[in-house]
Structures are given as structure tokens and as C-alpha cells.
């Protein structure tokens, strides 16, 4: 492919400038590699309720002790 050849061509119909712009935009977006999702920010208030290393455990009566101070 030379520098003079178009990347794509319309073979049927007469698209408007807006339709061509939408097509080019869709092609550009689809050709980019997918970005990793941004990590979810946790507020300091939410972190204070979950001390480090204190994973929830399932045990008999665990639901009662879940509301008690540690």
C-alpha cells in the first residue's frame, strides 16, 4: 500500500461527512489496544472499617461478632 492509497473506500452509497467521521472514529477506537481498568479508589472512611489482614471468616455466630468492636 502506498501513501496515496486510502485506508478504506466507500463501495456503495453516498455517506455524509458526519457518517464518514463516525466510521473513522469507530475504526480508530477499535484499533487501539484495550486499556486496563483504573483501580477503584476506596475512601479512608471505608478503609477504617476494614483493618488490614482482617478478612471476613465464616464461623458459627460470626454474624453476631461482626458488629462488635475488636
From TrEMBL:
Segments carrying the region annotation (Disordered) are: 45-70
Q: Any idea which GO molecular function terms this record carries? A: acetyl-CoA carboxylase activity; propionyl-CoA carboxylase activity
Low complexity bias spans = 45-63
Query: Mind telling me what this protein is named?
Result: Acyl-CoA carboxylase epsilon subunit
Organism (species): Micromonospora coriariae
Amino acid at each position: 500500500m502506498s501513501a496515496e492509497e486510502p485506508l478504506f473506500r466507500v463501495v456503495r452509497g453516498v455517506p455524509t461527512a458526519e457518517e464518514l467521521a463516525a466510521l473513522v472514529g469507530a475504526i480508530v477506537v477499535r484499533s487501539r489496544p484495550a486499556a486496563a481498568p483504573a483501580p477503584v479508589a476506596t475512601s479512608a472512611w471505608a478503609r477504617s472499617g476494614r483493618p488490614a489482614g482482617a478478612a471476613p471468616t465464616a464461623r458459627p455466630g460470626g454474624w453476631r461478632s461482626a458488629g462488635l468492636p475488636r
